[in-house]
Amino acid sequence: MFNNPRYCTRGISSEVPLLMQIILWGLIDSMEVAEKDYLQVFCLSEESGKQKIIHRQEQPEYNKEYLFPSEEPITAKIFVIDDETHTTMLLAEEY
Predict the structure, then answer these.
(1) Which helix (H) or strand (E) holds 67?
(2) pLDDT digit string (tens) for 24-62?
(3) What structural domains does the chain harbor?
């Protein structure tokens, strides 16, 4: 999973900075799990002026939090869906 061509929706392109997109793809690539679920969920928020990312999947269960400095933290819920032919990053409201 997640070794297919990767795409972003218009919502991602317009609302999520490119660096953040690259970070999210990297978090998927670096997951240390036996199996990746077809649906990856990222909850982005601000915490004490820093960017907080909660990355999770349902099967097998995975939940990891990251906190790092950011000049402009964003708040969004992002899905990354792998359908075996391509992988798409989209805002939750675009689903």
Answers:
(1) strand 62-69
(2) 999 999 999 999 999 999 999 999 999 999 999 999 999
(3) 6-94 (3.10.450.150)
